[in-house]
Design brief:
single chain; alpha/beta; 51% helix
Amino acid sequence: MLVSLNKLWVGALLLLAASASAYSAPKTVLVLGDSLSAEYGLNRGSGWVALLEKKLKAERISATIVNASISGETTSGGRARLPALIRQHKPSVVVIELGANDGLRGLPVASAEDNLRTMVDLARKNDAQVLLVGMRMPPNYGRAYTEQFFNMYTKLSTRYKAPLVPFMLEGVADQPKLFQADRLHPNADAHPIILANIWPKFKPLVKAQ
């Protein structure tokens, strides 16, 4: 009887150890974005993705960040690149920060929405959680277009029950001093604010078991 109890106890300990190991295994986070996430015009390490990596370490959250952002990227480009990125990195979380370049070029919102939907579907099929990061277009693009573009992210978030950062430049867009000389790209002082917008929606994903 004692031998059997010892075996059960050892088995239970092994199961607990395996469970703890699975829980503590670092997650891989894939950030798929454009120049706003690719540190355009910034010193390396000062963009919000690099700041996110530092924050994870400070909070002792085990995660590896893969920043696959490219300046000038569109939703169609992200859609084309995502399958290979998922195969290579097998992310647990995919942060999709795309759409701004589609909007600035006046591309059809329906096409951007279809591309984003395809990316969310692909990530979900590969057991990755998705965080959508939204954007607003300047008012000079016309009210109908800007509202349709902004609402696109909410529609996708509702459809997939995926967390959404409605506007990553909240608290930045109306502050000229937070932009580089081109008046399009945030400067280094803006990126902690951007991270503060993203972090509350991101943290639950990376901490989820």
